[in-house]
Amino acid sequence: MKILVTGGAGFVGSHLCKKLLEQGNEVICLDNFFTGAKKNIEHLITDKNFKLVEHDVENFYDFAVDEIYNLACPAAPIWYQKDPVKTIRTNVLGAINCLELAKKLECRVLQASTSEIYGDPKVRPQTENYWGNVNPIGVRSCYDEGKRCAETLFFDYWREYGVNVKVARIFNTYGPKMATEDGRVVSNFIIQALCGENLTIYGDGSQTRSFCYVDDLVRGLIAMMESENFTGPVNLGNPGEFSMKELAEKVLKLIPQSRSKIIYKDLPADDPKQRKPDISLAKEKLGWDPKINLETGLVKTIDYFKTIIK
Fold it and tell me: What's the average model confidence in pLDDT over 135-161?
C-alpha cells in the first residue's frame, strides 16, 4: 500500500512511519516541522519506500495514496498555545484538506484525535459516549475545540459524502523521540532527574494521567485503520492510572543516581484533574489492548534520553 502520514516527523508520526515501512508499505511523510524534527525520520530517508515532503496541511495537497493518517498538529500545551490561531487552522483546515483528498481518492482516512476532547472530565473512566467538559474560550481551547471540530468534520464527511473515516482518541503517550523541550510530563520528569534538577509538579500532585507506550499506540492506530465497518471514535490509551506524584516517584526510583527532589507549583488554567480511558470498545472492535507497563516503558524512555542528554 501507499500511505500518507501527515505530521509524520513528529513523535508519534515518526514511529508510525517506521512501523508502516517495516510492514512493506510505501510511506509519504508530510510535515512542516513546526514541532516535528528531521532527526526523528533521518534513519528512514535512505529507504526507497519512504518519501519526505515539507508542507503545511493548512494548504491543500494531492498525492495518489491508499490510506491517510492525519496526525498533523502540535500536541503539547507549550506549542499549541504558542500560536493558538495556527493550532485551530491546523486542526480545521488540516482536517478539511485530508478529507477532501480522501473523498477524491475514495480511500480510508484516520484522524488522530485526543483525550483532550473530554476536557476536565466529570466521569471516570472516560468512555467514547461521554461528550466532555471543555472550556470553549480558555487557553487550551485552540487544541481541545480544534480537535473536537475536526471530529465533527470527519463524521460529517462520512454522513454526507460516504468517506471511509476512522477516529482514534489518543490518551497520554510517551517513549523515545519525545522532544526535550515540549513540556510533557514524562519527558519533563526524566530530563529534570537526569540533569539533577528538581522535578516540578503543577498542583498538589493528585491529578492523574494514563500513560501509553508509543509502540502500543502505533499498533492501535494501525489496527483501527485496518478495521472493517467501524468508524469510531475509539479510545486508545493505557487504562493504568497514576497521579503526578506517583509518576515523579517512579522516575526518581528508576534514576537512583539523581539528587533531584520534588517541588510544587500552581496548576495551569483548565488543566484536567483526571485521565483514565475505558478501552472496552478497542478490545471488542480491534482486539487491542496495551502490552507495555509503565515501568518497562519508562526504562526504555530513560535509556533514550540518556543518549541525547550530555
Answer: 95
Looking at 69, 143, 157, 213, which residue is catalytic?
143
CB atoms within 10 A of CB 310: 4
* DSSP H or E run through 213: strand 212-213
What SS3 state is found at 86? helix
| Closest residue by Cα to residue 192 from 290, 99, 302, 65 | 302
- In single-letter form, the type of residue at position 27 comes to V
Position 120 in a domain = yes
Return the percent helix, strand and coil in the chain, to nearest 5. Answer: 40, 20, 40
Which residue reads 480544534 in cell numbers?
146
> Considering only CA atoms, which of 171, 157, 190, 306 is closest in space to residue 239?
171
Number of domains observed in the structure of the chain: 1
Q: pLDDT (tens digit, 9 = 90+) per residue, 226-261?
A: 999 999 999 999 999 999 999 999 999 999 988 898
Residue 188 lies in a domain: no
What are the helix (H) ranges across the chain?
Answer: 11-22, 38-41, 77-80, 84-105, 141-161, 185-194, 214-226, 244-254, 280-286, 294-308
- Structural domain of 73: 2-173+213-239+274-291
Active site residue 157: no
What's the predicted TM-score (pTM) here? 0.94
Mean of the pLDDT values across residues 191-217?
92
Residue 301 lies inside a defined structural domain of this protein: no
* 98 vs 142: CA distance, rounded Å: 20
